[in-house]
Every structure is written in structure tokens, then in C-alpha cells.
Amino acid sequence: MGAVLVHIDLDGDRPDPSSLAALAAGRAVASSWGATLYAALVVHDPSEHPPDSTGQVVSAATVPAVDAVRAELARAGADKIIVAVTDVPLAPLWAAIGAPWQGILDHLRPRLVLFGADAPSAIELGPRTAARIGAKLLMRARAVGLDMIELRDRDGGYVRVTDGGASVVMIGNARGDDRCDDDIDVIVLALPGGGDARIELAGAMPADVAQAHGAMVALGDDVAGDPEIVRHAQRLAALLGAPLVGGRAAASAGAIPPHAVVERATPLAPELCVAIGSPNLDLAGATSLVRVGSNGKGVDGVLPGPVGASVQDLLRALEEP
Fold first, then answer.
1. End-to-end alpha carbon distance in the chain
2. pLDDT tens-place string over residues 52-61
3. Same domain membership, residue 42 and residue 145
4. In which domain, by residue range, is 131 found?
């Protein structure tokens, strides 16, 4: 009988509740089928782990994430834990964890693969796993039966011990069955460099926004060397009660003070930004953007033409009683 494999998403240093539900269903199925139940983790570790010729690390002692969940997964029913260690930062995307996950599949060649239907990685890994191993896919199933457990989908599909071929199942709610046994084997696979180099993964944490309210006047490096434009920009900033910011070239030219330098990667979310020239800014979508001296799509206002004359026109319009 082939292995039963359950993918475990981590919520901090704890298994995701939906993954534990899938592990509970996997325990019932594995016991019914007489199969070994594996709980699989993909963990990020940028340090070097010397693999042997098969890519398997001799000891799991150097992977801290394993110690944090080992006992909990054992008590939840796992017979063994298999861990893929990758130097790629983790994200619930195939581009980030697909390669190490494929390494686990290749190592075990499981008969049945289970995901928690509400686990973060399930929607990415589940269908792709089925496609990669040529398996039947059940999108939301539950374990039913007493002696011979089967997995049955609400749409009528099912997986039984007598079925041929592999299956991938996304499990809904299930009750756990604590074994109270934390003596469990751990297999660790070192799979460095498993990310897709063509894809840049952006962080999922909220950005540290530098300015989230009020107005801002941004001076482009392309016009920071023009004293007249700089004076107009300073007058405009004073009129709006807004800071005047720009890039490093603007600071070097003396147009703005050093503390007003804004890096391209700094997220900004003012209510209004007046961009004079072509400053490089990372603006939130809710910002009202007015460009002076340049055209642009997706902006709230444009003053085309020479920058100096356009800024003067804007100042006159704002200063009129």
C-alpha cells in the first residue's frame, strides 16, 4: 500500500488548523488502508546543510522548525514527518515552494495526498500536485465509513482503498484523534535554490508607509538643478502646508534637505501628491496625483508644457482670492 501524505502549512510556529484537520482524516484513511501516514513540511533555512548523494540530510537537529511541531504532529496522528529545507523565502505560492514540494513527492511517490481545504497553500499546491502526478482531484472532501474509510467529495467523487492510481484530496473539517505519542521519525531533504528565479516574491506583510495623510510636493531629479523651479516648488509646498521631497540628486543640488530624500522603494500614501518633473515615487493607489510638466496615465490632474511655467500657473491659481 502506498504512502498517505499530508501537506502541513505553518501558522507561525504552529500547524495551521486546516492542515491538522487534513491530518486527522489522513490518520483515519491510513489506519483503514494499512498505510504509513507522512506529515510534510517545507521550511525556510538559508544556511547550508550538506546533503548526501540522494539529497537527504543525515540529521534533523539543525532545523529548528521541526522541533517546534514534531510532538504536535505526532500526537495528531502522523507516523513520520518529512521536511524539505529550502533557502527560498516561503510564500503560499507554487513559485516559492513548488520545487521543494515536488522533491517530497518524488521522494515518497504517495498513493494519496491530502491538503486542508482552507490552508494557505492548498489552492496553489492542490490542483498543481494532481496535475504533476497525474492524480484524481477532490476539491473538498471528508472521511466517511467505519471499518473501511473512504474520502467522499460533496460533488459525488470518492477515493477508496480499492481504487487504482493516485489521488489528491482537499479536506474540509475533521475531528482530530490524539495519539499522545511524540516518538516519531523525521526525514529531512535539503533542496536549496528551489525558487523560480524569474519571479520576484513581494512581502505579504503590511508596508511601513512613510506618509499616510496630508499633501506632499515631490521634486524630480530632472528639474532639481533649475533654481527658479526649485523656488516655485518651495512656494507651492509652503502654500499647501506640505513637505518638499525628492531624490538624492535633488539633495545634492541643495534643492531639498538631506532628511527629505525619499528612496524609490519607500511606500508613500499621502492624500495628495504634486509631482514636479519626473520624481520616482512608490505611491499607494488611493493617492490623488497631479503631475506638473509631464504627461501620465492614471493620474488625477496634468499640467503639461514647460515645468517652470506650469508651476507658476498652478501657484497663481492657488493664490487667487
1. 86
2. 434 444 344 4
3. yes
4. 4-190
